[in-house]
């Protein structure tokens, strides 16, 4: 009888200990989950022009466009990208860059990354080609998330006659034709987008 009672007390003790530790275990697992890829830190990413060894999120739409990347340095994975290029066939009064496409991995579609990536892209453009007067993007009217991120990066609404899209422009504050381009290889050039 005494032996059976000791086993019962051990089992009850284990059950009590397990029940006491269960909330702590759940809290720890939940905390670990929040620190994963679902809480991205845009300032901890590497931002640069793509090279041939990078695995892009999707294939390029415009073959002559440059691709600017946001890379998670811990996993060496591209988490965001933007296609861009110097627009040809403009009126010739000033140079402009068009950001044609942008992509984010699903887990990284959070506030902060698109605006940070655009800020870094604008800095890259201005460093490489200081005579560029402005950059612009064309967004779907229904994408409020990206619209907010573009505005946060410093873009303002500019003229657009399209009922489906909105154009946003960023004017470089100190662009002049007298600023020579930095000779660091060719700068991507793309055809002017059509308004149809």
Automatic annotation (TrEMBL):
Keywords: Signal
Signal peptide region: 1-28
Highest taxon listed in the record's lineage: Eukaryota
InterPro entries in alphabetical order: Acyl_CoA_acyltransferase
Region span, Disordered: 176-196
Keyword S-adenosyl-L-methionine: no
Stated name of the protein: N-acetyltransferase domain-containing protein
